[in-house]
């Protein structure tokens, strides 16, 4: 017996309970007593059946991720599962909450799996840059068939109990008291008698595989993997389960797992797993949060509408405010259309759509916001306009209501100073489309009250966002670093690179698209307007805008778009324009390689991140990674810019920045002291020693 694994008896049925809060991960201190308990029960003639269950809120949620990268202490999970399969009496896993990764693999070692109706089962290892390494790739196909197993393992998305039951993964679903039902189920099995076939010996579903169709599916996956190794390895392992004898397939899975767990990609993805959870932590965990039931959103344009949908999807009532009835109806109409698209895609039922729409109340009168607990403004990005809106809110909002701005750049301290209750003002910087994009930058102003901050951090989680708390500066973390990344784009063009060469360097790096493709998608007029407001210029982009080349929506921008096409084709006119502008400046075009493109775009990105850390705008380097992966498409396999700096070598980044600084004299290239410190100590922490 241990604190983490206990055995109780209900007459001839033994119940092994794992109790390792918060998620019952299979840490060494669980595996060891679990193995001992199972061996003892196997050899105990008075035990007719064995149930494996968990205490707390969930079944085993997987291996202990913190143990990866260190020597694994025996017994390993695969040894426990192998031992389980030597037991002749019936073994049953009782699943509540989530059976994930190693948790599901443990359950696959049992003869039977039962679940409560709310349980979820899955193998999400791929999201950590891994594959199921406890036999999951070899056993799951034997129960649900190789095609379904391939989908589950490569996507990493868990399925519900009903679906698992229909697929043959779960043998029974019980309502109510799961432990009692499971004990009765196990006793009945023992009474009827065996033999009970372990999953490893069930081959029928494998025979149904059409290998050609399977290979076509695998080829498609490889195309979509964008340089990630884990999805391909997952698919290979499932294929092995079909084509190789059980033990050989298991050995191959083990070898693939060993390769992945030691890879930079998996290290990067594990870093992000913990980084996302860290980012959601703010000091003062026990602060009493404010009650939020009704949310007001001002502005029913693309941004406001998306924000309103994000809150409605999270279960909140929403009052949507516009300046005119016409604009309001247009906004509500778009929301309805968006939900209708979800229904047509099958991701929403007609009933849920109706419920969601019933959560909205439209208004053109600020007085209707008086009942709201949180009000988010998403109006035109202009300080005077924002202050006017906040003035009106100050007059109508109830005391204690949180007043939030969705500004992407503006000084929130200045907005807060314009109202009588700066302690209630916070920034909620959503990313477009706000109902889809995961990232939420929560901007804490100088006077934001700790309970207001804690409330919005909690709220972000409730509406399914990945939240990062940041400080006030122009562009906060994401857009400020984006400006640094883009500061050399025009220069690279003028010196001889084409938009498609630069974009290709980015997509080869793993980004979903390059900066010019992204500019065309977002609309080049947005940056143009911002530059004009700040008295800045960008010779190529400005000229394109003057010619009405606003990007995809205009059919032409940096690229040409055929009607309805999402990807553009290079436009000789744009390349000629670039050469003309270069000639006007006396710049002789030269060949520019991908390395130089990365050095002049991504090294300044990292450098700006270091400055942001120095200034305390972000609390941790890993927060910056969370922003960039979730909001800007930084490749997850590289862990975000600050993690990648470690892979790339901070010393090399410093050296090359110094080179470019000498050549151009530009501030973006001047290595930040924190980056230099990282190069010496290997850590982003202030005051770390090497
Ligand atoms: C695996 O199993 C490999 C095997 O195939 C092969 C082995 C040979 N380990 O997410 P939460 C911590 S790979 C260690 O906020 P929720 C988490 O960091 C694994 N720690 O809760 C957090 O700590 P803190 C495959 C873990 O209710 C706390 O628990 N499994 C682990 O929102 C609460 O987490 C997975 O990938 C872990 N496995 O969501 C599942 N899991 O409080 C990963 C969580 O200090 N886990 N922690 O910040 C999840 O998806 C979610 O945690 C879960 C609960 C859905 C279970």
From TrEMBL:
Monomer. This is 3-hydroxyacyl-CoA dehydrogenase NAD-binding domain-containing protein. InterPro entries: 3-OHacyl-CoA_DH_NAD-bd (IPR006176), 3HC_DH_C (IPR006108), 6-PGluconate_DH-like_C_sf (IPR008927), ClpP/crotonase-like_dom_sf (IPR029045), Enoyl-CoA_hyd/isom_CS (IPR018376), Enoyl-CoA_hydra/iso (IPR001753), NAD(P)-bd_dom_sf (IPR036291). Its main location: other. Residues 295-471 form the 3-hydroxyacyl-CoA dehydrogenase NAD binding domain. It catalyses: a (3S)-3-hydroxyacyl-CoA + NAD(+) = a 3-oxoacyl-CoA + NADH + H(+). In the N-terminal section; belongs to the enoyl-CoA hydratase/isomerase family. Belongs to the enoyl-CoA hydratase/isomerase family. The lineage of its organism: Bacteria, Pseudomonadati, Pseudomonadota, Alphaproteobacteria, Hyphomicrobiales.
